[in-house]
Amino acid sequence: MSKLYTKEMFLIAAEKCEVSMIDAQHIMQYIDEYVTPIQLPTDEEVENQASKYSRIESISTQGLAGYYFEMGAKWMRDKIQGGQE
Predict the structure, then answer these.
(1) Distance between CA atoms of residues 68 and 74, nearest Å
(2) 81 C-beta neighbours (distance < 10 Å), count
(3) d(CA 40, CA 34)
(4) Fewer CB near the last or first residue (10 Å), C or N of the chain?
(5) Are 28 and 7 in contact (CB under 8 A)?
(6) Are 53 and 69 a contacting pair, CB within 8 Å?
(7) 23-53 pLDDT tens trace
(8) C-alpha distances in angstroms, 7 versus 12, 18, 50, 52?
(9) How many CA atoms lie within 13 A of 76 on its CB side?
(10) What SS3 string covers 37-55?
(11) How far is CA 80 from the centre of its chain?
(12) pTM listed for this prediction
């Protein structure tokens, strides 16, 4: 399982390990310079992608695939951001 951590979480861990804040800030500067952040989609981006799925379904299920895609994508994004529900 892959794990994601925020900068704030990194600072908490650094503090617990008694890493100097100067060193922690230096590491965070390198993170900003050399690491590409994960970009989570906005609601609008999720809705745009979901609309593609509703177009390919039959008339009887039109919209359901897009709806469930949207709900699942938003749920996953919220979980990544730390949501517990």
Answers:
(1) 10
(2) 10
(3) 19
(4) N
(5) yes
(6) yes
(7) 888 888 888 888 887 788 888 888 888 777 6
(8) 9, 16, 31, 34
(9) 9
(10) CCCCCCHHHHHHHHHHHHH
(11) 5
(12) 0.50
Phi and psi torsions of 71, nearest 5°: -65, -40
Torsion sign (Cα): 7, 9, 12, 13: negative
Q: Which residue has the tokens 């892959």?
A: 2
The token duo for 70 is 């949207």
Amino acid occupying residue 59: I
9/82 Cα distance (integer angstroms): 11
* Residue 66 burial by Cβ neighbours in a 10 Å radius (0-12, 13-18, 19+): buried
Q: Are 14 and 31 in contact (CB under 8 A)?
A: no
